[in-house]
Every structure is written in C-alpha cells, then in structure tokens.
Amino acid sequence: MKIATYNINGINGRLANLLRWLDQAQPDVVCLQELKCETSRFPEKALTEAGYQAIWKGEKSWNGVAILSKDAIRELRNDLPGEDDSFTHSRYIEGFTFGVVIGCIYLPNGNPFPGPKFAYKLRWFSRLMEHGQTLLDTGLPVMLVGDYNVMPTELDTYKPQKYLNNALFRTEIRQAYADLLAQGWTDAIRELYPDKRIYTFWDYLRKAYERDAGLRLDHFLLNPELGARLKSSGVDKEVRGWEKSSDHAPVWIELREPNEVTEDKDSAVKKTKGKSTKKAEKSNHVSEKNSSVSEVDSLPEDVKALLDAAPVAELPRKIKAMKATQVDQPFHDDGWVYEIKWDGYRALAFVENGSAELVSRNNLVYDHFSPINELLGSWGLDIVLDGEIVVLDEIGSPNFVALQNWRSEKDLNLLFYVFDVLWYDGKLLTDYTLLERRSVLEAVLPKEDGLIRISHLFDADGVAFYETAKRMKLEGIIAKRAESVYTGDARSREWLKVKAKLRQEVVIAGYTRNEDSGKNFSALAVGVYDEAGVLRYIGKVGTGFNDIMQKELLRQFKPLETKVCPFDVEPDVDEPSRFRPRRLGAKPTWLLPELVCEVEFAEISRDGKLRQASFKGLREDKDPGDVVLEVPSVTDEVLEDFNEEVEVSVDEAAEADSDTTKVSATVKPSKSVRVKGVKRKMSTKPLLEGKNEISEKYIDGHVIKFTNLNKQYWPEDGITKRDMFNYYDQIAPYMVPYLVDRPMSLNRFPGGIHGQSFYQKNVAETAPEWAHTMPHTNEKGEEREYLLGHDRATLLWMATLSCIEMNPWFSRVGSPDNPDYCVIDLDPDKNTFEQVIEAAQVTKSVLDGMGVPSYVKTSGSTGIHIYVPLGAKYTYDQSQLFAEVVVKLVHRLLPSYTTLERMISNRGGKMYLDFLQNRPGATIAGVYSLRPKPGATVSMPLYWDEVKPGLTMRDFTIHNAVDRLREVGDLFTGVLGDGIDMVAAIGKARDTFG
Q: Can you give the residue ranges of the ATP-dependent DNA ligase family profile domain (predicted)?
C-alpha cells in the first residue's frame, strides 16, 4: 500500500501536473493540501476518471485539504474537535479507506514570530495532540499525514541558523511536534532515514530548488500498528522541477500488507501455518498434526505454563457460546478491554483430527461455509474457537446482507474473526481469564491465514473506541472484563455490548401487500416474545429489500402460510399513523413464526411499535422462541457490581473497634484491629496528558471542557490544575459515594491556593443541563439552586470551577433535615499536632465507652475529623446535642488545652472541640478532598492505630493518596452504614461517665 502527501498549492492551476504524477507514481492514497479552491470547484470528475475517489474540504483563498483513494473512502471528520475564534487558517479532514484511518493536515507557517498567528499555531497543535491521543486510544490503524509546516530537527533544513526565529523552526513548535511523537507516533521518514537530510519543500525565491536549499515540512506520523508495517519511503523530487510546479514535491511511504512478513520471519510463520491445501489427505493431516505438536516446545514460557496447568478434558461438544449483556452507553474502565462488534453469524468452531465444524448458538451446523471448515481442518490443530462469520464490503466493513448471499455469490469476502479459545490439544481453558485465553489463542493460531483472522482486542479508551466505531458505521463494540472466565450459554455481565445502531432481532409472522402495488410484498409483520412466551406484534418492516430478495423470501414464506394469526391479538396492519395518515389497503398473509430476521430502526414508539424499520437479513442462527425485545441495561448499574470488592465488611471493623472500657484522665483508646477497606477500581492512566492548555473529554456521557491546564495551583510544589483534575478523576470511585445526592457548597479558587477564593452555593444560572440540583430556601428566605453530587462528571465539573476542595452537606436531598453522620471537628489554635492526636485518642475512648463506632480522618489542614454514623435517623438538632455530650466529656478529661468556646478571641489559644458543625447547610472538607494548603494535602481516612505521635498532615497528599487507597481501600464506608442508637448511647454515657 502506497500513501503520499502533496501540498499542491492550487489544485485547478496544477491539475495537469497532479494527473501526470498520479499516472506515473500510482499511489493508492494521496493527501492534498492548499487546494485553494472552493468546495464546489474541486475537480472531482477529472480525479474520478483517473481512478480516484475523494473527500475534500475547500476554501476559496489559500488552503483546503483532500484525501484521494483508489478504494472507497468514507469521511469521518472535516475538522479537529474544539474551536478557535482567533484564526481559522488550519485545515483537517479525516477518512477511512483501505482499513486505515487517515487524517490529512494543513497547518500554516505561523509567521511572523512572535505574533498571534504563531500563538494560534501552537493552540491548534494542542488540539491535534488531544485528538491524536483519542485516535491512538481506539487501537485502529491510524496515520496523521500532511503539511505540518514544522522542521522537527536540524536535519530538516539546509541552513538551521537561518531559521532560528522562523515559526517553522522555533523551539516551541519543535517541542510541540516532539510531544506529539511521544504519544506513540512514528515519524515515518525519520524512522527510515535517521541521519539523512531529506527535503520536501523548496522556496520559489533565490533558485532554492537548483541549489537544493530545501526544508522538510511534510510528515507521516504512524501509530504503532502501521509503524510496524513501514517498508519504504521517498520524495518524488523531480516533480518540483516540472513547469508550473508547486513549491512542495510529493512525498510517499509504502506499507506492508497486514499479513505480509519480512524474509527473516517467513520460515517461522510457515512452520506455524502448516499446509493449507483444501484437499489434504489424512497422511498429510497426521504429519501436520505432529508438526503442530512439536511446535508446543517453541511456545512462550507463560503459554506453556498455562497449558501444562489446564485440566485434561475431551473436546467439549456441548458447550455453547458465551453471550454479552447489552448496555445503554459506552464507558471506560481500566479493568476492561474492547473489541469491534462484528455484524455476522456467531459460531463456535470444533476442530479435531483434521475435521472442522462450525456451530451456531442454537446448535445449527453451518455446513455451507465450507472454505472456512476446510482451512481450519488443514491446520493440524485440535482446538475449539469462538468467533464471528462475516462478509466484508469493498471498504472492509461487515455487510450482513451480503452474508445472506454467500451461497449464490461465492466471490464475496468471507472471513471468520476469532476472538476466543475454549479448548486446545486436550486441555480445557474456560476457567482461565480472558487475557490468559487470548495469550494462548495468539500463540497457537496461525497468523492472518486468509479466511481466518484474530479479532483485535483493544486496550483503549472505551468511549473513544465507541465513537470511532460509530463514525465508521460499525454495529457497535463489545466490552469484556479482562479477568472474565468463559461461561458458556450465559448472558454474562462481564461481556457487555454497546450498539452504535439500533438493531433488533424479530420473528416474521406475516407479510402484507398494498392495493395496486407492483411489489412482491409491501412489508413484513414482525413481533417478539414476551416473558410469558406470547408473541407480541411490534410493527411492520417495509424497506431494506430489493426485488430479488423479496422473491427469495416469498419462496421461503410459501410453506409457512397459515390462516391463523400468530400474534396474541390480530393487529391492524393497515393502521394509519401521523407519518402515513391514509390507509393503503394492506392485506395480511400470516406465517407460522419460524423465521427470524434482523432489523435496524429509528426508535420504538410509545405504543411499542418499531419506527422506520429496515430489513437487514434473515438470522438462520437464531431460535424464534429466544427472540425478545432487547432493553439495554444501565451501564453504571452493571459496572457497580465490579467496582465494589469488599474484603471484610465494615460492620465487622466497627465491632472490632468497639470497647466499653471506662474513661479516665489517662485512658488509652481501645485496641484497633486493622481490617482492609472496600476496594474500588481506579483508572491507572491520567485523564489529561501532554502539555496542551485546553482539553475536552467525554465523561459519563457528557463533554466536559478543561482549561488552563498548566496553571500552577500549588506553586511551591509545582502542582498544576491538570494534576488536580487527574487526581479527582482517579479518586472518583472512592469519593463519589460520599457526594451522591448531597448539596454542595462550592469553594472556588480560580487563582490557585494563594489567590482570592469565594463560596458559591447557587448554581441556577451556571450548572450544565445534565447536572442534578436541589431548590432550597435558606434561613434568610433566599431562593437557591444547590448542585447535587451525583457522579464522576459532576465531580470533575466542580473541579473545572476551580473547586480545590469538595464540601458536601451532612444530609442528602431525600432527607435534608436528617444527617447521615455526626462530626466532631478538632480545631487547634496554638496547639501542637501531638495534642490534636491525643484529643482524638480521648474522643475515641469516650465514644468506645458509649458503645459507638467512630471513623477518623485528617482534615488535610491542621485538625482531625471524627465521624459517627447516624443513618439519617435523627435531626440536626439531635446530632448536635449528641456531639455536645461527647465533647463535654473530652473537655472534662483534657481541660488544659481544649475549649468549647465558639468565639476565637475567647479561646485563649486552646483547641476548639467543634460540635456546632452539625447544623443544616454546614460543610467541612469531604473525605478524600484536596486542600488549598502547601503540599496539596488530602483529607484522608485513617486506621485508629495510625492516630499516634509522628502522624502529620503531609503524610497524605495528592502524590500518594491514590497508592494508599490501592493498598488499604476505603476505610470510611461505615460512615454511610446503619446509624447508632442515640438514646442508648447517651444512656450508656451517663452510666459510664456519670
């Protein structure tokens, strides 16, 4: 495959040169820049006659981009994500062709430097980096090609000293290019020629071409998959010398095909593949099998260990394919990997003794896909595979309709995409994790052997991967938990499917023909089974079939015709609607409900009917009785099962901490038993990488914009606003449970910790439409709209408001007058932190003596917070009364340096035992909240035995909080558990302390 880039510098004025070069060079794909023509004046006809299809984005004056391809090409984007109001000089168009995503770039030179055009160039480059990372995350083959107007190194200019202050060679833009490469891109030209001066541009002035005074401005950046396929490259320099030439010359690279190997790899691959002749004799099979067995010794050591440890088993003939649960939206989670959802027939391949059989989910044998069976049998492997049979169209996309025609059109591109292995060479693998099974699959399966391919597994951003699948018009994606075992015939919640198109399997129970219609039939009457096994009518399907397809369907309908309506209630198949207000005289012919088809539709109406349904093909692999209406599960609810792995219940921890030892002035708190907390999945990859100032991310179904990413929020520590966003993104699984449904008091620090801050409680005018809010009238009678904590997106949106710390109410929206916990805030003045620690220990002893569980965290500032669960059973007044009882007992035991005096001026430098926080609307820094203090300290839950001399606030910061949680889990969950019996606790206090 040969790909070129060419800054044509006016396509209509240089069309003859372009066509001449295309005829000579015969590139498969060409990226063009500086079209300098309006969209309507693009010479599509001339290029079509030359054998190229095209997508383009024109502009009258001075730029514009296009991609030409000898194959079908589909436009994915015609601009980068994000906006810039200052300049609009740059151009970007993105297409999909030859199975590759190609971004074509034109970036202006940015001169004069310094100036607004250069600043714009850097901003645009930041947008390119953001989108480039998104493309890399999809895992698809991707390249970014075009005129970058950047000379990355001194080798890329004939005279470096001349260009030191030129926008093409400034250190800022070279660094931006280097940062882009650091994401994982390969600079194709420099990869092949690391030390050679190669130029792609020669100025018109001063006879630069004749002197070879050139620059390299045109670049190919390839993702790792394409980088591994890089074969050769060149510059067709002579084109620059043609009459009326552009100041750029065409540049090209050549890629190996996906299944093409270098000479040094040939022998190894041939050994793996064995003989592939369709008419292999048994003797050949035996020799191949022996060869295959001998290859076991050459498998990777980890794969050999897995196979050695796997249980011995006969070929599992009765096993059925594992099913995926449909969910309503895409997601990203580090514990999951992603695949393309292929639009075909699911099949298990049973291969043994040189014979192969493909079997559907309902045990139908696919004997008409004989080329796949023959190739499987020729390998000499005993194996059971899971995969999908598909037919690809001319641009490499699955075509379900074409799959229906396989019997009659054997020249179609038939493939079997394999994504799992269940049994191999007498060993059952189903109890291994997905990643372990994949390691076996990739080690033993012949590589890309024509009709059979391994379906790629992408460790990608699930949301970005889904968006790319949508743009490529694919059916959807499959998310698989990396640690999932194979559970045959189960609708697993560890495999999830997210559809990019609304598709539904339906039972064909009749067809209609309108009066005066010349068609074989007008529509299909379709239905699904309900939970009681009753066939319910859900509408008609009137498009998606041509005359030939209709005739073939009628042939299959004929033996199924019946006079009895199969639906529970006979529908009015000629019923008018607001989209078709008149009757068409449709008459039904009922059919026995034995055929299943798949349809694509726009929506399901309120009365349960399909709207704008289109026929996609028969599903011969489905049992009609299994066809029900697919209702997607809520993604968040499904994932919740995997995000809370409780090792030991918090109730047990509370019981272990409980002690009723009577308090004295020197009492020590009861012995603390360390019990691991609740573990939740956290992202291991930063949300916002790179050095760009602005970024947009898709979070919980919403686009959130992050700005001023490089701003120093903790300047003494070099901690930026980007670092804050990344912290809250990682910590969200632990923090969000303590924010859900709680009104938030927004403490905003737009200038960082040393800037002016302010509180915002009313978000009526500022909250996004998707935010959850609570109307509230405060004690002054003012109407407010409080933001409610809800999910990761809400947390990150608060962070975009420069909320360094998060301050939730003690109560939730459903019970605003009843707090979930009581808080005792140890607030030191001129005290040492050792005194704060001692006060915390005594407070715990008092609570132990009352038979009350307690949970402790650092404030992240100077004090310590102690929480007691109430379970929303009491009012704020009752909570405050309880806290007052506790702190009076503590003060009685530590009178020398504690006080209950609210006025600071009257405290005499003593530690305030604050019980008045327990009132409506009051907030303190929430659990896991960052604090606007030097060091970026965190309000961190502790084991009680950690509350001892030597503890400091700087023990827990933005730098180590995530690692701590991975180690100990969430120690604070008991705070949200069942509340105490307050009456019994106060009574016990009287008995214990008098």
A: 407-533
